[in-house]
Structures are given as C-alpha cells and as structure tokens.
Design brief:
Largest sheet of chain B: none
Distance between the termini of chain A: 86 Å
Shape of chain B: globular
Radius of gyration of chain A: 26 Å
Largest sheet of chain A: 6 strands, antiparallel
Number of strands of chain A: 15
Number of helices of chain A: 16
CATH topology of the domain at 36-124 and 180-186 and 227-334 in chain A: Rossmann fold
Number of strands of chain B: 0
Oligomer: heterodimer
Number of domains of chain B: 2
Chain lengths: ~500, ~475
C-alpha cells in the first residue's frame, strides 16, 4: 500500500506543478486585481531604490484647499538632490503588514534605507483587532514567497487571520477588559471605565446643555489613545522588532517615523490626563527603540490642531503645512545617511513646482488626463486632446508668492506629438473676483514627431493680477489628436 | 476549526497518522483528545458544556442500566433530558423565548420584562444534545446497554468529524466501531479522500460563491427585479444544499479514513418526487431521529387520521424549532407540515402514485415540482424574520421587470450546473462509490478538476457552514 500511496503522492505533486502553470497563465492576474492589492502596490516598486517610505493613508491624504498636494514621501524626496525615494502606501496598513512587505522586498528588490511609519493608534486594541484586519491580511497573502498556486491555496483555505466583524469587536472588548491601568492613583480602572465616565460627565455647551458631538469625540479619543503601551506583550512591538531584525539582516538603514497625533484636541476635549498618557507611550517607544539603535523621528506633537483634516475623528491626515513639517523632520533624520544629497527645503518660501505626472493628485484631484500611453522617463504623462481637451492643470493663488517673485512665470515641459494635426496650446490663465478671466495662449509648434522635445515659455504676470489672482497653467488641445506632456516645471521669478 | 481551513488540512493527517500508530486500546484517548482540541479551537470555555453533558448522561446511563424496572428509571431519564434540554434552552432558546414573552406582555405594567442574555451559541449544541438524548432514551427503553467506559462514551458525544454539524449518530452504530481494531486500508483512504475533496468542492466552490449573491438579494429584495428574485430563491436552495451536504461528506470521509462509518445524511434530495421523499433524502440523520424519538412515541400513523395529522405537524414544528430560535424556522417547519399533509391528501384523493420509474418523464416532472416547492419554502428559512420573508414574496408577486438585475458569475453558474449534473449521475449513489468503478484516467481527471477548482475558484470570504448556527 505504501508504494501505491507513494506513487499517488508523486502524481499529486506533479499535478500541482501543472496547476501552477495553468494558474499563472490564466487566473493569477485577475486574482491579484481582486484579492492582492497589497502585493500589487509592493510589486510596483522599482527594482532598485535608495529610500522606500512605508506609510498608510497619512502619506497621501491632503486637504482640498492645499495648493501643494504632494505626499509626505514626495516632500521628503524633494529634500534630497539625487536620491531615488519611493513610497509604498497602503491604507490602514501597520507594522504587521509592513513586515510582510519588507520581507518580500528583501527577496525581490534592492533598497538601502527604509522609513517605516509608526502610528501610535496602531498600538491600540481598537486597531490591532480592527475589522479592517481580515481584508488586509487577506490581501497580503500573495506577498508570501511561495509559488502562486500555493498562495492561492492559502487564500482559499483561509490560511490567514480571518475573523468576522463580531469576533474582532469581541477581541477589542476583551482586550480593553484585560488592560487595567497600572499608573499609580489613576482614577479609572480601565479604558471602558474612563469612557463611561466621559460619557456620563459629557462636554457642555456654554448654555449648559450637553454637546453630543464633542462628548462622542472625547470618548473616541479616550478609546483610541487611553492605553498603556506594554512592550512585552503588544503585537505591534513584536512586528517592529521583526522589522529591525530584517533591516539588520539586509543591511538597511532603518528609520521609524512616529506620526503626529492631535494632542491639542485631545487636551481640549479630555484633558492632560490623556495627553500625558500619549506622551508616556511616546517616551516608551523612543526609549525602547533608542536602545535598539533605530532612528526614530518624534513627530507626536509637531502638528497643530488646525492642520488635521479630520476634525471629528482621530486620524493622521494632515493638511499641507503638517505634511511639510513631518517631511522636514524625517528628511533631517535621513540626512545622516545621505549628508551629500541632503538639501533642506524651506517649503514656505518655495516657488518652484514640478510634476512628473506619476501621481494622480499632485496638482489636482482625480487628474483624469493622466495617461500611461507614453512617458518621458517613468510610466505616466499627461494627455491633452481626444477625450480630454485639458492636460493636468497647475493652479495657485498668487497671493502666496512674495511680491518680488510675482513678475513672471517660467514654464517648461517635455512634449510629444504623434503628428501635427492638432491644435495644442500652452495656456496661462488668471482670474480673480475683481477682474475677468484673462488667458495668454501660445501654440506649441515643433517638427519632431514621436520624439520628446523640451518646450519652454515665459509669461509676464499682468499687473492687475499680481494681487489676489488665481492662476492656472495647462495645455489645451480641442482636437481628437492627442499630445503628451511630461516633467512639467513652473518657476516664479 | 472548520473543515475548509488550512488548520484542518494539517490536523486530519496528523490525527490519522497518530491514530494508526497508536495501539487499538488507546485509540479512544487519541480521538477524544483530538476531538476536544478540534472543538476548543473554536471556543475554549464551551468544551465544559460538552463535558457536563457527557458526565450527566454517562451517570444517568449507568444508573438506568442498573435499574431493571423501567418506571424507576424515570428520574434518571428526566435528569438527563433536563440537563441536556436545559442547556440547549438556555444557550439557544432563552433569548428567543424572552423576546417573544416581552413582546406578548408589552404594555402590561404588572409583568416584568425578561432580560436578554449576551451569549454566543455553542457550535453544534443541537447536534450533540440530540445524540446524547438518543443515548439516554435508548437505555431507558432497553434498546442499548450503557457504556461503562467514560472515555468511549465521551468520544461518542464528541467524535470530531461529526461533532458540530452531524450526521447525528446513534450509540449502537458508532460506539462499537470505536472499539474495533481498524487497519488503514487503501480503499478507506481513497474513498475518504474522494469524499473530502468532493465535499470541499461543493462547499468552497459552489456554496461560498453563491453566498454573496444570495446575501445581496436577501438584504434588500425590494431593489431587484422579478428574475433576480427568482434566481435568489433557487440559488439559496443550492447554497444550503451544497453547504450542508459538503460538510456532511467531509465528515463522512474523514471518519472513513479512520475506519469509522458514518451514516449518509443526504441522498440527492432535489431529485425527490415529493415532500415526503424529500425528507427521506434531506438531513437523514435528523429526520430519522425525529421519526424514532418523536413521531413514533406520539403514535406515528397508528392513530386516527386527525391525530396523525397533528403528529405530523408537531414533528415538523419541532424540527423547525430545532433549526433555530426564530419564528421563521417554526413557520418554515409548519409550512412543511402543511405541504406534506396537502400532498398526502391530494395523492390519496386523486389516486396519484408517488412511485415513478427513475428518469421517466413522470419522475422528472415530480422532481421539478418538489424542487420548486422546497425552494420557495427555503425563503422563510433564509430570511432574517417573518416580515422579510413575506416582503420577499410580495416583491416577487409584483412581477417587476424594471428594477436592478443581479447576475451570477458565469463560473459559479457553471459549477452549479456541474453539481446538478453530478447529482443526476450519483442518483441514489455517492461519488466515492461511483468513482471506484471508473477508469483511472477518468478518476484522475475528476480529481484534477475538483482540486484545481477548490484552489482557484473557491470563494475567499469567510462563510461558516450554515448549519453551524444550529
């Protein structure tokens, strides 16, 4: 019987080889689209890079009114002259997911420095056992360094931390119940006790009535940050520890970017008991990772309340100035690895703008006229003509530019045309409440076909528009024949 | 631990290996440990319920077998029934009872409302409770002798393949098999694996892919047009069938590898020619349990016609209640009782023979009729509450063709059709026996398709076996 069974086992192994071939050819791409977004974003990284920045939504969130909508990672990249800084951004990701991404990167890509976002909320039970965890874990399965068919088998047989929403909620409640405050004379037994107290006491309006929204938000702040970090048992600490091991093994420079939290609001809503706890947890992290020789950037209190986009929830979504502050601090910490490339930027006085169109929301949201049909250097460019008559548009309020730099705008970009039967113009447009819209338009003319050429244009800003004017620069092409624009640079001088 | 998880795929071979390496007389211990581990993977504390039930029935069984006068056994029988049904009532029905009670006394100032207990329903409690109940009742009626070895008895209560969703086995069928000296035979191994693969295929590829489709429709039936609602009705019929049948045959296959034969729980039920026959083919271990421990003691059909009809209604209503603590299940059971009686009456009045030659036109028409009736009755079973099920029918009756259309994925539809075809092929048979006699090329072709489909086309969401909730 052993021989009979042995032959069949060999046959099944052979069958799996065939399955793998078939699967990779026919079903793997669509499976990745459907279930493997963590794998897909990781795979998209270039083969070699100097710095990889791992972040969650904090990296790419921006305020609608932000004039500079760049990612934190882009702003960091802007402060190093010749470094290839790339980001790996996945919403709701945390050290457990970063660890898997980095494991895969170690096997498949080349990198010198790793910046890992450290989100204080992610150490809390509410996030550790979040209902988002099941889909996250699922989408990270394809990062296992196994043959695709084995990863699909693991997915089919639920070989990951799979739990229902109810089970997750139960885990959170159990953890809260388990975690008794150890701080001497702390007036609450555990977070539930504190939350109940807050709910019972409530926040009052000036007329003495209960402010329901603020009370709910205060309760939420307590549940989110009202925990005592325990480095011995917290699973996130274990994940970060594994990342340290991985970095050592691969000789990576490692930086942990402890994100800013809205301590100002926490203090206003709940009081310093909560902010003290947040700072205590921060100090634990600084001390713990300091001992392990990891560079940890402390941003906890650097962003003021007004720079937090979500005023009615605890998130790490920052407006422009907040992102720039964090990027400056991270860049400064990276400077020790790259002293020659480091060129700190005074973002508040920067009047040069650049877009390679690789990111959709760099200048405008949604940027529909971004395309991957052609690209000067990387993968994408902006298209004008055909379906979209307008290229990606640069917009800026002139009042933000110092008067001395409001004289002229120098625009340059790489340009590609397939033939000459189009009507592409570069347009400089100004508009303000007091003045009608004014456009300066110049036809783009070149003989080169299917070849990238550099186009340059200089505009004098009209006198009346130097104050309070809203300015736009774009390429307009109302014909069916598209043209392509890449690496657009705009300088005020 | 669920059958469709990596844990079980690793757990089963380890148990099988250790089982055959262990001397026969200690195998009960290995299986019992494995069974308790299997259950504890789901929830640690609730193993205490199984242990409590086991100890109670073990003692009651011994005590009853030591008493020769049947009447004097009654206190022990009542103790066994009380503990088992008490646990079942507390964990499964208390909130349903209190909800209904509170609803009835609403507005009455003198009566106090009952509180809701926040409890997680212990997986499989209805299954193992019925198994232990049958043990005590059988001892009471001298049909079997009490087990004196508590290990073997505990194993009978908790044998892992059928612990959480049946088949509900009888003591005289299962217990002797634990004591036999089993050798691993190629036939058991091959047939067991065939059943496991097929069971996983119909659960993971068919039920789990139908589930999101059905869930969407049942969540908001008012949103969809007539044909989509109709598809929802039939899709659920196949979802619940493939889900439960899939579980049952993985259980049977797993036990078979250990040399233990479990009873068949399904025999192509959707090819039944009438409701009566449907219940002889659907969840057979439960139907026969109700027949032996409820229907016969009520007098069966050896009573007046009116009494017989009442007996039928009682059995179906209790069967409905067994399935779940919700009025939908009671209504569902009651509806089966009514339909069964109507069918019986019509067949008698119109002198319609319920027999038909297999695959004759008559058989096919009767099977389609039965399938349609069963499918529509499932609407009550699937709906959240009675109001939702009535709303579903209301929406159907509007014959609205302009609302949203929802289509099944082509792959899912293909596999459902394949399943229907395989049901026709295996009519009154089972895949393991059917495959046994086929050429090796066909056998391996079937294995390849099943395995590849399980890996590549399985639903990836977490859909626990439907019958786990009972």
């Amino acid at each position: 019987m052993i021989k009979k069974v042995g032959i069949r086992i060999v046959a099944v192994i052979g069958m799996f080889f065939l399955f793998n071939l078939l699967y990779v050819q026919l079903f793997f791409p669509s499976d990745l689209e459907e279930h493997g977004d963590v794998y897909l974003v990781t795979k998209e990284l270039p083969d070699s890079m100097d710095v990889v920045y791992l972040g969650e939504s904090s990296n790419k969130s921006f305020h609608e009114d932000d004039l500079d909508k760049r990612f934190i990672s882009d702003l960091i990249a802007d402060q190093f002259t010749d470094l290839k800084v790339v980001d790996l951004t996945k919403e709701a990701a945390h050290a457990g997911i970063y660890k898997k991404m980095l494991n895969w990167i170690a096997e498949n890509k080349e990198v010198k420095t790793v910046v890992v976002t450290m989100n204080m909320r992610s150490f809390n039970a509410d996030w550790i056992y979040s209902e988002l965890e099941t889909p996250l874990q699922k989408s990270a399965i394809f990062l296992n360094n196994y043959p695709p068919i084995i990863n699909r088998l693991i997915l089919s047989f639920k070989g990951y931390d799979i739990k229902t929403i109810e089970e997750r909620q139960k885990q959170v409640l159990e953890k809260w119940e388990e975690d008794i405050y150890t701080t001497p004379y702390f007036p609450f037994e555990d977070v539930r006790d504190w939350d109940r107290w807050m709910d019972y006491t409530g926040i009052k309006n000036p007329d003495g009535s209960r402010n329901v929204e603020k009370t709910q938000l205060a309760c939420h702040y307590i549940k989110t940050f009202g925990f005592e970090l325990d480095t011995l048992t917290n699973p996130r600490i274990q994940d970060f520890d594994e990342i340290i091991q991985l970095a050592k093994k691969n000789n990576w420079n490692l930086v942990f970017n402890l994100l800013a939290e809205n301590t100002e609001k926490a203090d206003k809503l709940v009081g310093d008991r909560l902010t003290q706890l947040m700072k205590r947890n921060r100090d634990i992290l600084l001390k713990y990772y300091g001992k392990k020789d990891v560079t940890i950037v402390d941003n906890l209190e650097v962003v003021p309340d007004r720079e937090f986009i979500d005023q009615d929830w605890t998130t790490e979504h920052y407006a422009e100035s907040g992102r720039k502050t964090i990027s400056r601090k991270v860049a400064a910490s990276l400077a020790k690895f790259y002293p020659d490339s480091y060129s700190p930027k005074d973002f508040d006085n920067q009047y040069e703008f650049y877009n390679d169109f690789e990111r959709e929301n760099k200048w405008e949201q949604g940027a529909r006229s971004s395309t991957d049909e052609f690209s000067f250097e990387k993968e994408k460019s902006s298209i004008a003509g055909g379906k979209f008559h307008y290229s990606v548009t640069f917009e800026y309020e002139l009042e933000r530019i110092p008067e001395s730099k409001r004289k002229e705008v120098y625009v340059s970009f790489m340009y590609l045309q397939r033939n000459q039967s189009h009507d592409a113009h570069i347009v400089f447009e100004c508009e303000s409440e007091n003045f009608p819209k004014q456009q300066l338009s110049e036809k783009i003319e070149t003989d080169k076909i299917d070849e990238w050429v550099k186009v340059e244009q200089l505009y004098r800003i009209p006198e009346g528009f130097k104050d309070f004017g809203h300015m736009k620069v774009y390429v307009h092409n109302p014909t069916e024949e598209p043209v392509y624009i890449d690496n657009m640079s705009i300088k005020f001088r | 631990m669920l059958f469709n998880t990596i844990e079980f795929i690793l757990f089963l071979p380890v148990v099988v290996l250790l089982y055959y390496l262990t001397p026969s007389k200690y195998r009960w211990f290995l299986l019992l440990s494995a069974s308790y581990y299997f259950y504890m993977c789901w929830k640690l504390d609730y193993i205490l319920l199984i242990i409590a039930s086991t100890i109670t029935d073990y003692i009651c069984g011994i005590m009853m077998s030591n008493i020769s006068v049947r009447k004097k056994r009654i206190p022990w029988l009542l103790l066994s029934l009380g503990v088992n049904l008490g646990l079942l009532f507390y964990f499964k029905y208390f909130n349903f009872f209190s909800d209904s009670y509170n609803y009835l006394i609403r507005g009455s100032a003198n009566l106090e409302q009952l509180e809701y207990i926040d409890l997680l329903l212990p997986v499989g409690i209805s299954f193992y409770t019925f198994q232990t109940l049958s043990y005590s009742i059988d001892i009471y009626f001298d049909r079997i002798k009490a087990e004196t070895h508590i290990g073997y008895f505990a194993l009978y209560v908790s044998f892992f393949p059928q612990l959480v969703a049946g088949p509900i086995e009888r003591f005289d069928s299962l217990n002797p098999q634990f004591k036999e000296k089993h050798k691993l035979t190629y036939e058991n191994l091959a047939n067991g694996l065939r059943l496991i693969i097929y069971g996983l295929f119909i659960k993971m590829v068919i039920a789990d892919n139908l589930s999101p489709f059905v869930d969407k429709i049942y969540q908001d039936p008012g949103k969809y047009e007539f044909f989509t609602l109709l598809k929802g009705v039939f899709a659920y019929s196949y979802q619940i069938y493939s889900d439960f049948y899939g579980y049952s045959i993985v259980a049977i296959g797993s036990a078979m590898i250990l040399g233990i034969k479990l009873m068949d729980n399904f025999r192509t039920p959707y090819l039944a020619k009438g409701i009566g026959e449907f219940w002889q083919r659907w969840h057979i271990s439960l139907s026969t349990w109700f027949r032996d421990y409820l229907y016969f003691p009520l007098g069966g059909n050896r009573v007046s016609k009116i009494r017989w009809a009442i007996n039928i209604m009682i059995v179906f209503l209790v069967s409905g209640l067994w399935h779940g603590a919700n009025w939908t299940f009671i209504f569902w059971g009651g509806l089966y009782g009514v339909v069964y009686l109507i069918e019986h009456l019509l067949n008698k009045q119109l002198k319609i023979k319920s027999e038909a030659k297999p695959w004759s036109a008559r058989h096919i028409l009767l099977a389609i009729k039965t399938f349609i009736i069963v499918s529509f009755i499932w609407v009550f079973f699937r709906s959240q509450d009675l109001g939702s099920s009535l709303l579903y029918f209301e929406e159907l009756m509007q014959f609205n063709f302009s609302k949203e259309v929802l289509d099944l994925k082509f792959v899912t539809l293909f596999f459902v059709l394949l399943f229907i075809l395989s049901d026709i092929l295996f009519y009154n048979n089972r895949i393991d026996k059917w495959l046994q006699s086929k050429h090796w090329l066909l056998r391996w072709g079937v294995y390849s398709i099943l395995l590849f489909s399980i890996i590549v086309f399985s639903g990836v969401e977490n859909f626990p076996f439907i019958y786990f909730q009972f």
